[in-house]
Design goal:
240 residues, globular, alpha/beta, 6-stranded mixed beta sheet, 27% strand, 10 strands, single chain
């Protein structure tokens, strides 16, 4: 049986008097592609910020690969993160951005590149390694951020609205690459999105509404449960 690589138990979070997460429970098993789907303002980014420890946990428990998020040095060592907002240094080259991140992980220049050498080819970034990030298009910048997140060989990859603002081809090229990581590297993925066309029937899905997980399971099973024709109809039924 696959173990849980990420567990959230009874997680509440408030900004002042406004509660934005309510008793959230979420499990992601190792080697799976899981989607957190919700409208803007549903609490997706707050949940992401708690798991990545950008926000401190107020109530409940979060475990990553068996380690409590409170033991952050152990919990965070096995994750890779792709934020919604770009975080690359625009005035450095792709290679320099990767070197810098690798150094934060205690890796030398050669070790950094060796750790991701195969992925450089797969992401079609070989020809832009010495290009300043400012001169890359949006799709290539996002690929670099995914590449950077793989330097520490994570067991869990977290992506918050990773394709927002990209053209259709770039969106689905990136999505296909991340799905392939699950199959070839046994990486667990939490893909956070509000875009229905990024979800397939075989995905593990959690639907969040107003800070609460209102249903979880395999997409096709959830659709069948509510006797709807597709995910869009099911979602609209659940969040109405």
């Amino acid at each position: 049986m696959k173990k849980n690589i990420l567990e959230l138990k009874n997680v509440d979070f408030s900004y002042g008097k406004k509660q934005v997460l309510k008793n959230v429970a979420l499990n992601i098993k190792e080697g799976t592609f899981s989607v957190l789907l919700g409208l803007n303002g549903a609490g997706k980014s707050t949940l992401f910020s708690l798991v990545t420890r950008l926000l401190n946990l107020q109530s409940g428990e979060i475990f990553i690969n068996g380690f409590s998020i409170q033991d952050y040095s152990n919990a965070l060592k096995d994750i890779g993160i792709v934020f919604q907002e770009p975080t690359l240094d625009l005035d450095l080259t792709v290679k320099q951005n990767l070197y810098y991140y690798g150094s934060l992980k205690g890796l030398g220049f050669k070790e950094t590149i060796l750790s991701i050498n195969d992925e450089i080819e797969k992401l079609e970034l070989s020809d832009v390694m010495d290009t300043t990030v400012r001169n890359l298009n949006g799709g290539h910048r996002r690929r670099v951020e995914i590449l950077r997140a793989l330097i520490n060989k994570p067991k869990l990859l977290l992506l918050d609205e990773a394709t927002v603002g990209l053209d259709l081809k770039s969106r689905f090229d990136i999505l296909a690459y991340v799905r392939d990581l699950v199959q070839t590297k046994n990486i667990s993925v939490l893909w956070i999105t509000h875009l229905f066309d990024e979800v397939i029937l075989e995905d593990n899905l959690s639907i969040i509404k107003a800070g609460q997980i209102i249903d979880s399971g395999i997409v096709k099973d959830i659709v069948a449960k509510y006797e709807k024709e597709n995910l869009v109809d099911t979602f609209n039924f659940l969040v109405r």
